[in-house]
Each structure stands twice: as structure tokens, then as C-alpha cells.
Amino acid sequence: MEEPIAVAVVGVGHLGRHHLRLAATLSCWRCVGAFDTHRERLAALAAEYRVPALPSLEAAVERCQAAIVATPTVTHREVAEAFLAAGKHVLVEKPLAASVEEGEALVALAETKRVVFGVGHVEFFNPAVQAVLAQEPQPRYLETQRLSPFTRRSLDVDVVLDLMIHDLHIVQALNAGAPIAEIRAVGVPVLSPRVDLANVRLAFTNGCVANLTASRVSSERIRKLRIFATDAYYSVDYGEQSVHAVRLARGEPEPAIVPVPVTVDKAEPLAQEHWAFARRIRGESTPFVTGEAGLAALRAATAIVAAIGTPVLPHERCCAK
Ligand code: NAD
To answer: pTM, whole model, 2 decimals?
Structure first.
């Protein structure tokens, strides 16, 4: 059996606590501890998972071979940089960074240091997404919906960087990285000063069109992906981890739409992401969201935010002439 990898978790908030749970339990890791600036939260979770509560970021850098960073997006650059500069492998939560410039700096540093650098686009590790990617669908048209009730979390970024970026990455993966030719976007702030719901139509240079909707002020939770290919259709429910697929049979006397069974082996996407990170560190080739892929998603998200423009706040809207 391979030696477990010494891992540290930084940021044990809403998502980071799940990273800590997996760092403390998966056999690929030996958790050397966690660090969080919120001392009480850190102490409680370190006790729950029986790992050391580290006194500082420097202590985490010193003790680990690999780090998982789940601090607020505005801190990703500073925290991830500390590990990368010391030659440690890093998995940083999505979005990669608060700006393209910061993301580029992290990707460049990881390359210089020749370490594994990944971004936590966890939806890529959803078994339903992997099952669809394995079908190589060649989409002509894509539709995504990611609607969530308001939680007050991740308000340091707008809904495009908070939620839509998950689907942007999946759409880019399905389009094999084809560049975006045109963006038509609209977004409005509702309960926060930033854009809380957004819709975008992307036209790719390969002719594919994608229509993405994201909201963090919805009354219901919906996470759907629909892929229309020339001779096939796939409907993915991320939450259910299910794929409904049909294909066009061009038979006589007339064409017919026939079901295609797609097997999905349900699993926790975050655990799959951990295993992929560990395998990459061990030099294995396995599907993974690299820093470059995270940067491509961040570039697309930033371009969408620019296309939306300066949002008009609700109190300004009612007073606009
Ligand atoms: P959160 O506010 O619940 O947790 C962040 C934690 O980081 C807090 O405990 C805070 O005390 C700590 N922290 C802040 N600055 C720090 C620093 N400099 N050093 C150490 N600790 C620090 O936030 P969250 O909702 O868990 O989000 C964290 C990150 O995870 C964000 O980038 C967010 O976009 C991402 N996220 C990803 C997903 C996903 O599906 N992949 C889901 C939710 C959040």
C-alpha cells in the first residue's frame, strides 16, 4: 500500500469542514492539521476530527506535502501562494481567485515550482457528469440551471463567480476548451449589492451555443444540465446524480427517439475530488481540474461579469428616471 500523503486544510467553514472530514478519514491522506483564523471553530472541528489545530498558516506550510485551501475567495491568492512558494501541492476551492490576474499568478507559480495545482470545481467529479463526459456527446446546444435559496455565504463574489462558474467549467469541458466567440449576459442584484441572479448566452467558435442561468435568491434548489447533440440528448440532474439519455435512430420507415441507458455509480463528488488530487500527486494520470482549467473558467466568468456591466441596485432601480 502507498504511503499516505501529509495534508493540511486551511479554512474550515461551511465547505472546509467537509474537506477536513475527508482529509481526516480517506486512506490517501495523513492529516497533519487544520488552520483557520476563527480559533473557536478551528478548535471545535479539530477536536471532532481528532487532528491538530495548527497555530498559524506557516505551521501548516511547514508540516504538509499538500494543502487544501477553503478560505473565502478574496484570500485564495495569499493563502495558496504561501504553500506554492514552499513547493507544496495545492487544491484551492473555486473560484481559483478573485481576479484573472491573481489566478494567472498562482498558475504561473505552480508551474515554476512543478507542483500539482488543482481547483475545487467539485461538480466535475459528480459521477453523473463523468458518465456524460465518457459518452463524448459533441454538444450543439447546452442549457444549465443552478438555482439556490439565499444563504448569505460567498457574498464576497457575485453569483457568476459563486455558482455559475461550476457550469462554465462543465460547459468548457464538454466543448473541449473551444474559445467563446460571443457573450450576451444580464444580471441583477436582489438581496446583496452584487449580482444575485444571472443569465448568459455563450456562442463558442465551434458553433455550440450555451444558455446558463444561476440564482442564489431562488425559492427552490435546482441543478440541471441539458445537452443537445446532433443525434442525442442528455439530461443531467447534478443533485440526483442521474442521467436521462436518448438518441435518434435513423431507421426506416421513419426516424425514432430511443432511450440510451447510462450507468451512474453514485459517490460523494468531494471525496472523488480528493482521490483525484492524491492520485495526481502520486504521478497518476486521472481526470482532474487543473489550475489552467480553473483559470479558463475564471476568465469566462470575468468576461460575463464585464458583459453584465455595473448592476443597478434595487433602491436605484425604483428611483431611475
Ligand atoms: P466560509 O465563510 O463558511 O468559510 C471560510 C473559512 O475560512 C472561515 O472559517 C474563516 O474563518 C476562514 N478564513 C478566512 N480567512 C482566512 C485566512 N486568511 N486563513 C485561514 N482561514 C481563513 O466560506 P465557504 O462557504 O466555506 O467558502 C469557502 C470557499 O469555498 C470559497 O472560495 C467558496 O467559493 C468555495 N466554495 C465552494 C463550493 C463548491 O461547491 N466547490 C461550495 C461552497 C463554497
So the answer is: 0.94
